[in-house]
Amino acid sequence: MRDRNFDDIAEKFSRNIYGTTKGQLRQAILWQDLDALLATLPEKIRVLDAGGGEGQTACGLAQRGHEVLLCDVSAEMISRAQAQAEEKGVSSNMHFVHSSAQDIGQHLEKPVDLILFHAVLEWVVDPQAVLKTLWDCLAPGGALSLMFYNANGLLMRNMFVGNFEYVLQGMKKNKRKTLSPDNPLQPEQVYHWLEQIGWQITGKTGVRVFHDYLRDKHKQRDGFENLLELETRYCRQEPFVSLGRYIHVTAIKPLEPRKNYE
Length: 262
Known about the structure:
Elements: H1 10-18, H2 21-38, E1 46-50, H3 56-63, E2 67-72, H4 75-88, E3 94-98, E4 112-118, H5 127-137, E5 138-149, H6 151-160, H7 164-168, H8 187-197, E6 200-207, H9 218-222, H10 224-234, E7 246-252
Parallel strand pairs: 1-2, 1-4, 2-3, 4-5
Antiparallel strand pairs: 5-7, 6-7
C-alpha cells in the first residue's frame, strides 16, 4: 500500500471540495479554532502545513504575517498553492517543498511553532508513525492543528441514505480514484495515539455536524448563514463532536517531556 497522491484528481478535488459549501463551512469552523489557538502563541510564528494541498489555510496564516512552509506529496497541489500565494500577495512569507509529511523533517532548519495536518491522516498507510514524525518537527510549547475524517460520520451518513449493505460489509472502499478517504478513523483511536506520543489535547470540534445530513441539499446553500450559526453553536459539544464528518483536534507539545516517554 502507498499513501494517496492527488496529482491525478487535483482539479476534481478543488471543484468538489474547496468550491462547495462543504469547503466553505470547513474553513469557517476551522478558522474559529485557529484564531483561538493563535491567541495562545507568540505574535510571529513558524508554521508547517503538512499535506497543505492548495494552500487556503497556509495563505491565511501568511497573510497574518507568519512564516509558513507548505509541503505536499502532490506536485500539482504544490503548483496550485504557489499560484494562490502569488495571487494573494503572500509569497514572501511562504516556502514550498514537494515532500511527504513523513520526510519533511529533513527540510526543516529547526522545529516549528505550529503544525497544520488537515484531512491527510486518513489517506496515509501508517497514521501513527506520521503523528510521531510531526511530534519531532514541533518545538516544545508548540501546537498541533489536526483534522481527520471521522468513521462515525461516514457510518451515520451512509445510514441516513439507506446504504445498509455497504455498512454491514464494513464500508470498504472499492475505487481508489475517488474523493472518499482510504482510511476513515475512529476518534478515540486518534486521541489515544496523540496522548500516547505525548501531546496534550486542548480542544475537539466537529466539522460539518449537520451539513452533510440535511435531506434537502438546497438548504446547504440557501440557508448557509443559519446553518453556520447552528454548526458553530453545537460543534464543540457532544454528541455532535463525535458525529462531525471531520473532527478538528488542537493539542500542545508540553515544554517538559513526560518522564516515561520513550
